[in-house]
Amino acid sequence: MNTLICYDRCGTCKKAKKWMDENGISYTIRPIKEENPTVEELEKWIPESGKEPKKFFNTSGKIYREQKLSAKLKTMSEKEMIDLLATDGMLVKRPILLSDGKVLVGFKQEEWEEALLKK
User: Is 3 exposed, middle or buried (CB count within 10 Å of its CB: 0-12, 13-18, 19+)?
Assistant: First the structure.
């Protein structure tokens, strides 16, 4: 089963949903603002994604800019980053797709096609 973790007002999330619908891929939606990823989930998803924790931050978000996180992340440990991400879903890059042990962060159509359409 595919779980799409997204924010309903996010343009990238809308594109991901549209692409999945057009390709007949079923999914359930988990609203990131109401159901923020937990520390435990992030500790599992980050290695499964193959990305470093920094890549899980929504760098275009208001909170990211207000807290000047681009500078702060340079000196933060992985644990500190994960703890911070778990405090607010709006800090987390979206959409996140959970699909059979795969974790895709952000919507890059080519990456999603490779993961979901090519068997």
Answer: middle
Contact by Cβ (8 Å): 36, 83: no
3-state secondary structure 20-43: HHHCCCCCEEEECCCCCCCHHHHH
Q: Read off φ and ψ for residue 108, nearest 5 degrees.
A: -120, 110
pLDDT tens digit string along 103-115?
A: 999 999 999 999 9
Q: What percent of the chain has pLDDT over 90?
A: 95
pTM of this prediction? Answer: 0.92
101 with 46: CB under 8 angstroms?
A: no
